[in-house]
Structures are given as C-alpha cells and as structure tokens.
Amino acid sequence: MGKAEEYLDQIPMWTRKKNSLQDVRALLEAMGSPDRRIPAIHVAGTNGKGSVCAFLTSVFREAGYKTGTFISPHLVEIRERFLINGRMADSQAVEESFERVLSAARAMMEKGYCHPTFFEFLFYMAMDLFEREKVDIMIIETGLGGRLDTTNVLEHPLAAVITSISKDHTAYLGNTIAEIAGEKAGIVKPGVPVIYDGSDEEASRVIEHAAVEKNSPRIPVGQDDFVIKAIRSGQMEISARMMDGKALNLLIPFEARYQAENAMLAVRTLEVLQGNFSKAAPGTKTPAAGTELSASEMPPSLTGLRLPRPITAAHLTEGVKKTLWPGRMEQARPGIYLDGAHNPGGIRAFLETAKEIRERQEKKAYLLFAAVSDKDYEVMAEELTQGMEWAAIGVVHMNSDRGLSAGLLAELFRKHASCQVTSYEDTGQALADMERRAEGGLLFCAGSLYLIGEIKACMKKGSSGIS
Q1: Are 23 and 122 within 8 A, CB to CB?
Q2: Which has the closest alpha carbon to 272: 345, 234, 216?
Q3: Which site in 48, 181, 322, 461 is 20 to 30 Å from 146, CA atoms measured?
Q4: Is the Cα dihedral 7, 10, 14, 15 positive or negative?
C-alpha cells in the first residue's frame, strides 16, 4: 500500500462533512481548473454506470483516443478508479497526483475550507492525473446521485448519460423512483444532450422534464433499440438499431442481458457526439432515416459536438467486443460467476441472467452472498430466495465496517429459503467451502462489489483464497 492509499483510507474516520459544489469548484480553481480543459462525458444512474463507462472507454480507445476514466467503487485497490486507456494508472503517477491534491487541500484549509471527503479527494486526483496524462476525453462516473454529487461540478460535458434507475441510497436520494430520477437528472446541463434508459416510464418523465427545462436534446434508449440474437458462454450477440435506421451486429463479451442495454447507451452516445442526431429536441427538424445533419441544420445545442476523429462501425464493433468490466456477471473461473448486484433492481437483473445460465447449462446453482448494512438487504434476501431455486446458500460477513453480520443475513435467508443456508465470517473460507460444494455446478457470488473485491483478492492469493 502506497502513501496515497494509506492516507485516503483514513479520511472517513475524521472527515464526514461533504463540501458544497461551490467549495469543490474553489479547490479545483486553486489547482488551475484542470477539469475545464478536457472534454467529458458524465454518467449517472443506479445500475450500469460503470458498464457504460467501460463500453465508452473501449470504443474511444479503439478509435485512437486517449481516455481518462473515473469510476467507483474499486474492487481491490484504489488505483482501479483512475483508468488511462482502460488500464489502472501508473502507481507513481497516482502518488504524484495525491501529493499535489494534498498540498492544494492544506492550502485551502488554511483559508477556512474543510478537508475533502474521501470521494472528493479521489475526484481531484483524477482531474489532476488526467490533465497531466494529456487525455483526449474524460469519462466520469458519478459517486452518489447526481445533482449534489461532487462530479457535478463539471460545467460543460459533451453529453450526460443516465442509466437504469431503481431504489437505492433512499436515505439520501428519496423514497420513490421519481425522486431518485430527479437527483440523477441533476447532471443535465443547459443544451447538453442527455442519453438515457427509457425503459421506466416514471423515471423517463422526470428526465424528459429536466431536459426540456434545460433546453437539452433528449435521446431515450429502450428495448426496441436492439434484438438479442444469441447468448453463449461469456458473450452475447445483438443486432443494434442505429440512428440512421440501419442495423449493426455487436458481440458483447458478457452473458447478462442488461449489458445489451448498457452497450446501447454507449453506442447511442457516440452516435450523438458525431452529429448523427435523428431524435431531435422538441421544435427541431427530424431528418429522414439515413440523413446526417450538417452543422447549419443541427439543433443549436448540438452544434460543435462532432468528435475530432470519426468513430466508425468497425470501431464500435471492435470496441464493444473488447470491453473489460470485472465483477459484472464475470466468469472468474469455470462455473464461478461474480456479480456486484447490490440493490433490488440489480438483484432482479442478476436473477434473470443467473436463471438463463443455469437453464442453458442444466446445472445446479449455488449462491454466495454478502451485503453492506445501508442497503435494502431484507428485500434482496427475499427476492433471491423466491426468484430462483438454489442448491445451497452461503452468506458471509465482509471485512468492512459496513459489512452486515453473517448471522443476521443467515437468519433472513432461512425465513424464505428451501435449501441449506450456511454463514461464514471469512470470505476466503466461504469461497473455498462453497466452491467445493458447487463442484460440477455453478457458483454465483453477489450482493456487494466489496464482496467481489474480496473474492478477487482471495483468488489472486491462491486457489480459493488459500495461500
């Protein structure tokens, strides 16, 4: 562990006050406002944010762009949050950005400003790192919500992307889909196109209203924008409906159906940024299928959005095919799947894919689950047990202050489960035991990205975490 990670890990212990966006802007200005010099795509939503960022990153990289991607959370080490061309930033570069941000933060504290929170500090580091790496474009994932999120200090992103929305972080974002969607839609900026998951009518109405208020073109993406042609082990083939009316076959390196929607959000965003805009904002002229608007014909809010280098169909197909995104229905070993489903919406998507995999392979399914205490774990436990037939279930207490008691989880699962439920206090032990029990079957690990991180760390140490 470097000095940066050691220091950052201690921040939550003594800094809990979130700074205002005005305060965040003040510190960025003290750093020279690096965020103002790099084009950005801003991504919010409940589920799928990281996947959309990964698809965008991979396609941009395929098209020859140098990308800087900021994501959260990390699975094993903090460096995972700072990606240069899809790979973790260099350790030395991360340490240097940490030192520069720490110096700026201390100078601001002398002027009466509060110390940055953990997430704020990471965001400042990303902005510094991406500027010094001279990236062509930034892809920025929100942390929590959108309207008040630290990343919403971005003033003029090229596009705002809002992925699927479900109930999560209700203590902070609201108790209804409409309230949560309102927070996510807070990233929409005047005149900036918003590309969003249009599958939920309630959420869509809120996002559309926000777009109209900001005079921002709105581009919904729904189930009618693609057809799943085949799902095989480790990949899925879809036919994507492009904005010019043509179809493009895409090979997605994931088995989860929800990744088709995430891939389409990324593809549609790239189309819009190239000016292939056929779903115009209210009051603007909609071209015929296959027509590309000239700069003079484009809605004013889209003028100048064209990317400096074109992204071709070949870039899209190769970029999507080469996308890497660990912990999202990832087949980490033969028969072992890792999925960071951590809220009711994510659990429903997880179950849909897990059932499809089990039925296709005709094998018994086993579950290893963990949750953090501020999630709706009771609902998740009920949905998991009622939504699928498990051969056995294991629950584990993660090595985190937020980790939920394995005993409590076991009690909740036993209320609904028709199979044996075993509790564990150690992730390595849980993985080793469940892997032995699931031999010849399928082991699905879900419930928290922190659990996925611990499992990956165990796998890295040795077989089933036994070193």
Answers
A1: no
A2: 216
A3: 322
A4: positive
